[in-house]
Amino acid sequence: PGGVAPDGIEAEFRRLYYDTANATHPAAMAALQKLVPMSQVTYGTDTPYFPLDQINNLRSLGLPQSDLDSIASGNAERLLPRTTPCAGRARRVLIPRRGCCVRNRAGARD
Asked: Rounded CA gap, 77 and 56, in Å?
């Protein structure tokens, strides 16, 4: 009684969060969308083993922009509230709020 997964393994899988590292193929993403809402998906790359352009694969899936934004950073920011994107960076990179931006050589904040 009770066991390791009393509601079944699939119910346990539905409780997890997933990243997109090497899983941006349309079939993989379709399967993931059937399992969990996009609010449980975060962007991952597994760089240097896989190309950094996996975000382009996600864009080609025809997901709503709100889902792409959530996957790219919104979901991670929600899961890790002590992190925030640093304003002024070319890419959105999650870094700790304390000392959010590093100073460049000229002393200005990036």
From this structure: 21
Predicted TM-score (pTM) above 0.90:
no
Longest distance between any two alpha carbons in the chain, whole Å: 64
Distance CA(86)–CA(49), nearest Å, equals 26
Q: Tokens 């997890």 belong to which residue?
A: 16
d(CA 50, CA 89): 23
Number of Cβ atoms within 10 Å of the Cβ of 73: 19
Q: Is the dihedral of CA 88, 89, 92, 95 positive or negative?
A: negative
Q: What is the DSSP string of 44-86?
A: ---TTTS-TTHHHHHHTTT--HHHHHIIIIIHHHHHSTTEEEP
**42 sits in which H/E element:** strand 41-42
Radius of gyration of the chain (CA): 17
Convert the pLDDT of each residue in 58-105 to its tens digit.
999 999 999 999 999 999 999 987 766 555 444 444 444 444 444 344
